[in-house]
Amino acid sequence: MASWSAIARRIRVPLGFAFATLFLWLAKPTLNSILAGCVFVIPGLLIRGLASGYVQKNEQLTTGGPYAYTRNPLYLGSLILAAGFALASRSWWVAGGIILFYFAIYLPVICSEEVSLRARFPQFEEYARHVPRLWPRRSAFASNSSPFSWDLYWKHREYNAALGSLALMAALAAKLWKR
Hints:
The chain has helices spanning 4-26, 31-52, 73-89, 92-120, 124-130, 150-155, 159-178. It is mainly alpha-helical.
């Protein structure tokens, strides 16, 4: 039988799309809430985009760029992005759903990914001792990494997060305009 973290890894994207539908139904946006949400959505997208231009999944342990500050900049970016959408929605139900989603889905996935990284990369233990799981440290962890790569950004299709965010914000604006 599969562990919850393995199940969470498989269902997180489809569940995210289902949650987006619920999000739009529950949202009660105002112009101010949408603008306030963008204050978080944009940095969340930037963090995710920056992280995707460094990570070389399953090839090497990435410790440079935003990974020198937090072991999970993609998830940190997602969390900031989600906070922005919660703010834009003006719905406590949405905010509660995001918190539940984080603890029930993302936290187990993060933990299972760390188990894999420990098994694959012996240097992960040293890295994990110095770099926090999610909340960034103030100074960079010493690393020998390559610079940001647009090729990696495109390979990981991180632009989909930006397009999806734009579509959700447009849907919120349309919902506001219809009222």
